[in-house]
Amino acid sequence: MAYFANGFKDDLAIIGMGCTKFGERWDTGLDDLIIDAAFEAFEDAGIEPKDVQVCYFANTNAPNNCSGTPVTDALKLHGIPVTRNENWCTAGHIALINACLAVESGMCDIAMAIGAEKLKDKGAGGLGVGRGLNPVRETRRDAPGSFALIAEAYFKKYGLTYDEGKRLLAKIDVKNHYNGSLTPRAHFHNVLTLEQVMKAPLIASPLGLYDCCGTSDGGAAAIITRASLAKKFRPDPIYIKGFGCATDMITPHYRPRDFDWTSFEALRKCAQMAYDMAGIKNPREEIDLAEVHDCFSITEMCIYEDFGFSPRGGAKEDIESGFFERTGGLPINVDGGLKCFGHPVGASGIRMTYEIYKQLQGKVDNPERQLKNVHRGLSQTFGGPPQIAACMILGNELG
Q1: pLDDT per position as a tens digit, 69-115
Q2: How far apart are the C-alpha atoms of 320 and 105, rounded to whole Å?
Q3: Active-site residue list
């Protein structure tokens, strides 16, 4: 943790980003998504593909373990390092962090992070089922089943009835669907009522249909350089204040004495790394907006507490008061989140960072969505059974 806290703040900047439309993109292949995201980022940064010196690719479903070659071939980036990571849902943030480390180390001046995923063509949703990683330690639950256990544990720990708990989760869904309805590139644009969410078919009790994020195709990209060079490319670069990544054991529930399904070590530690680097003491007050990993509504609720946005057990009061709505004290998932933007796994962390980048520049794609007086934002992903988390904090001012 001390390594991350030592000296990165304001050394680096994002000078260009791109993001495709997310959704059921039957009209595109993986290479199309890569090209569309990358060339928006190139144009945004005022550079060409030949200016990229190293590239990190986030993808969990590329064919035949093909390394970084989908990006290399689509963008003609031959002759430079292009590598792929498949760190579950955090892959996009890992690509961003690797690009930061490459520039900070002196390896290069311009690095690219790109994530893209074609999930709809697989004929199966998301990461699939049956991911057994050890013959003794069972990890074969599907994602809704795993996160339903988290919801049940949270309700029990904080004394919520089934209906009370579902109603809180439904309020998160209604918030994110409204935000998504304003976002042109989001997968879903349907505004929901609390009653619709409460009456939706169950997927894994207590999680219903609208508690689960969409399985989508999409891509996103970022160009990173030194802060000292950033204004040579654009007048309004966005500075990297901090980042963090932490990994827990594959089956943390085998530690019953310190794991209760309502709080996650990887979330807490990755947040603390980023806060230490950024010099943040009170995230609830010092962060102006956040994009968090709402693969399921209960995930967003737990993140409120593990990231210090709400006190332990206090998410209920903040949800009821509208604290995380776009007009509240800390707007969260103002583009609809994974819930409505969709979740092409490797692309999501970069897409979430794209939203923070555009909000901090005052350049979102629909003026009705633009938040006022925002200076510092956070993007965050959480993956695995779950057991890996990553985040990044950005700001539009130095210091």
Answers
A1: 999 999 999 999 999 999 999 999 999 999 999 999 999 999 999 99
A2: 45
A3: 89, 343
pTM of the predicted model over 0.90 = yes
Q: What are phi and psi of 48, to 5 degrees?
A: -120, 165
CA quadruple 135, 137, 142, 143: dihedral, nearest 10? -140
The H helix count followed by the E strand count for the chain is 14, 11
DSSP E strand boundaries for 258-322 = 289-291
The tens digit of pLDDT for each residue in 5-44 reads 557 899 999 999 999 999 999 999 999 999 999 999 999 9
In sequence order, the β-bridge partners of residue 395 are 239, 376
Q: How far apart are CA 204 and CA 92, in angstroms?
A: 27
Full DSSP string of 132-165? ---SSS-----HHHHHHHHHHHHHHHTT--HHHH
**What are φ and ψ of residue 25, in 5° steps?**
-90, 65
Query: Between helices 143-157 and 162-181, what is the axis angle to 10°?
Result: 120
CA distance 228 to 382: 32
Structure tokens at 370: 């633009």
